[in-house]
Design goal:
Number of strands: 10
Number of helices: 6
Number of domains: 1
CATH superfamily: Formyl transferase, N-terminal domain
Oligomer: single chain
Distance between the termini: 18 Å
């Protein structure tokens, strides 16, 4: 981590695979608590262009087919992120599971977000539709640590419920989920930057700001 004007700042690496919307959200919400210094992708995707257009200094592509194994690919990604000075990772719209080779290089410092109140509807390719089809009254957002070879199995950092009703659809719920993610992110970046996150087994405790 670095400091600016006496405030602790994260050096954030973003793992991405998509259009860049999640990357833009990180760039917009980390101000004051961190800066994005690297972006890595597993696919040749528009998010890489977003990263370059926003002046992120380290941008790289790591396709699985270019490596002998997922472990080798993720070890190379970890090395690239360390080289860029990254001390915190957000897997924002990242389409693949992550090997322990990367997670062990950044212990308890790889965060992701999932559009449900985990562990409900974990590991679904698309969680909102199944939740609405099930007739839930609350959907939500979960920020969690990544777990090896799992998309949604890591320790929960923070959750926020979002009420839904029988007339809601994916189209009506998605904007509320995205806004909730945006609202939660600054506080989570601040908690990690200020070293206020404590692991207690599978449970995480966020200490109050001093």
């Amino acid at each position: 981590m670095t400091e600016e004007n006496g405030e602790a700042m994260l050096n954030i690496g973003v793992m991405t695979s998509g259009r860049g919307n999640a990357l833009r959200m990180v760039l917009e919400t980390c101000t004051g608590h961190g800066k994005v210094v690297a972006a890595v992708a597993n696919l040749d995707c528009p998010a890489l262009g977003v990263a370059r257009d926003n002046g992120i200094p380290h941008v790289s592509l790591h396709r699985l087919e270019d490596y002998p194994s997922r472990a080798a690919r993720d070890e190379a990604m970890a090395a690239e992120l360390h080289k860029a000075g990254v001390d915190f990772i957000f897997s924002a719209g990242y389409s693949d599971v992550i090997d322990e080779a990367l997670l062990s290089a950044f212990p308890d410092r790889v965060m992701s977000v999932y559009p449900s109140l985990l562990p409900a509807f974990a590991e679904d390719d698309e969680a909102i539709g199944p939740a609405l089809d099930h007739g839930v009254k609350l959907i939500g957002v979960t920020f969690h640590l990544r777990q090896a070879l799992s998309g949604a199995g890591g320790a929960i950092i923070a959750q926020e419920p979002i009420p839904v009703d029988v007339d809601d659809t994916i189209a009506t719920v998605e904007p509320r989920i995205l806004q909730t993610e945006r609202d939660m992110l600054p506080g989570l970046f601040a908690a990690f930057a200020e070293d206020r996150v404590r692991r207690e087994g599978r449970k995480l405790r966020i200490l109050p700001a001093s």
